[in-house]
Specification:
The protein is of the alpha+beta class and 413 residues long. It has helices at residues 12-23, 63-71, 76-79, 103-111, 118-133, 144-151, 154-168, 177-188, 203-206, 208-217, 232-235, 246-253, 258-265, 331-346, 395-412, and strands spanning 4-8, 27-31, 43-46, 49-52, 58-59, 80-83, 88-89, 92-93, 196-199, 221-223, 240-242, 269-278, 290-292, 303-306, 319-324, 351-363, 375-377, 380-382. It has 15 helices and 18 strands. It binds flavin-adenine dinucleotide.
Length: 413
């Protein structure tokens, strides 16, 4: 009978695991080597100003994240701006029909959209039907490009390729079709599921700070500034859950489960950069608070989020986050590339507040990737976005993994 658990890593997966363990009546010890909870999804101070460690967004289908926020006493509708996905570019939305919250109304909006040719309506209808009926497990070992090559043509192929880079942090020829299909099926299969949810507050305020207070209030012991160097002592005291980065989980597990540790160590990662900028004069008008940028080989950002327009509590009018998924090159090259994008699009450039770049932002989920599972060794478990699951490397994936891992520990007795 389990009555005490040690969780190593206080990112969003470790937080979710700790909350679920407290709810199950376990005595919880949560360790993180950082001075705060949150892991990769946290606020940072950059040159005296509070920024996020990279712009994060969620989608309406992220049910487990929204439910966890509510458990912690947070109100998602206050903390997240909900932006209907209309495939907007700076000139305006390209797919108004997508903004309908119900899938049936979306389909009707598509068929009757006067801005679209009959060819486009047919192309999208065909691809949406294929999306609905494709069995994701059958596509687990093929790429998104393989799926698109079979079921998407014209603008559909282009837009699903853009969404793939944003969701998977990988271009279509490298990303796992199985996981991408799961994300799209859940986003398009429920009312409001495809809405983009953008934090209106700093990432730490969005969840980790409230989680820290909730855990302490419910009797969990949170050890910050505490790097777990080896597991021997903890394992002697009960089950241990690794919720650390892939590299640290592999290092800690190696003496107990070398095969599992090798699989974790073999995972590769991709970078994400965010360039935060400020327009000191009147900002260019964007049709939506989130717009996609036309792809161009030397213009790195795929998305702009207008943080001023969504009423972000840390940012003024004219503050934009330029998101560079699958980022290549140095911070300086990316910053210059984003300024060139602004120049190209609006013939002027904003002031740069800071460029934040995380080299190991997400675990690459390719058709060949083998993310190891929860069960590491007797009494030793793991969760996080590097552990096998139904989601790519995302916040929702991290939270789902943390919760499912505790269920597995409890089921094991
Ligand atoms: C720039 C950027 C943009 C992103 N954008 C999005 C997005 O838009 N939407 C989305 O859903 N996801 C996004 N992600 C991915 C998302 O942030 C991650 O999937 C998620 O945060 C992973 O959480 P985790 O708990 O699995 O791991 P982590 O956040 O890496 O947490 C691991 C924790 O373990 C701690 N730790 C490590 N070793 C030890 C040790 N030995 N002892 C004690 N503690 C230890 C670390 O300090 C850390 O706090 C983005 C990531 C980045 C970096």
């Amino acid at each position: 009978m389990v009555n005490r658990i040690h969780i190593v890593g206080g990112g969003w997966s470790g937080i979710a695991a700790a909350v679920r363990a407290v709810q199950a009546g376990l005595a919880v010890h949560l360790y993180d080597m950082a001075p705060q909870l949150g892991g990769r999804a946290r606020s940072v101070v950059h040159q005296g100003q509070s920024l996020d460690n990279g712009q994060h967004v969620l989608v309406g289908a992220c049910q487990q994240t929204l439910a966890l926020m509510q458990t912690l006493g947070l109100e998602p509708n206050d903390l997240l701006a909900r932006i209907p996905l209309r495939l907007a570019v700076p000139a305006g939305p390209q797919a108004n029909w997508m903004a309908h919250s119900h899938p049936i109304r979306q389909l009707w909006g598509l068929i009757t959209d006067p801005d679209w040719s009959w060819t486009e309506r047919w192309q999208w209808s065909r691809t949406l039907a294929a999306l609905r009926w494709s069995q994701s497990h059958r596509w687990a070992h093929q790429s998104v490009e393989d799926w698109l090559g079979r079921f998407a043509t014209g603008s559909v192929h282009h837009w699903l390729g853009v969404l793939c880079v944003c969701v998977m942090n990988l271009p279509p020829h490298l990303a796992s079709a199985g996981l991408f299909l799961k994300v799209l099926q859940s986003a398009l299969g429920q009312p409001g599921g495809s809405d983009v949810l953008v934090p209106r507050v700093g990432l730490s305020q969005l969840l980790p700070q409230a989680a820290y207070a909730w855990l302490e209030r419910h009797g969990a012991v949170v050890h910050l500034h505490h790097r777990v160097a080896e597991l021997g002592g903890l394992l002697a005291a009960g089950p241990v859950v690794l919720a650390a980065s892939a590299a640290e989980s592999a290092r800690l597990a190696a003496p107990h489960a070398p095969v599992w540790a090798d699989a974790m160590h073999a995972l590769s990662h991709s970078a994400i950069a965010t360039v935060y900028t400020q327009w000191d004069d009147t900002p260019p008008r964007l049709s939506d608070p989130l717009v996609f940028l036309p792809p161009h080989h030397d213009q790195p950002a795929q998305v702009i989020i207008d943080l001023g327009a969504i009423g972000h509590t840390h940012h003024a009018t004219g503050c934009w986050a330029w998101v560079v998924s699958h980022a290549q090159g140095s911070r300086e090259v990316i910053t210059q590339g984003v300024l060139a994008q602004a120049q190209h699009q609006w013939a002027k450039q904003p002031r740069v507040l800071g460029t934040l770049m995380e080299k190991r932002a997400t675990v690459n989920c390719t058709p060949d990737t083998h993310r190891p599972g929860f069960a590491v060794a007797p009494g030793l478990w793991a969760c996080g976005d590097a552990v096998d699951g139904d989601f790519p490397s995302t916040l929702e994936g991290a939270i789902a993994s943390g919760q499912a891992c505790i269920q597995a520990v409890l089921a094991d007795g």
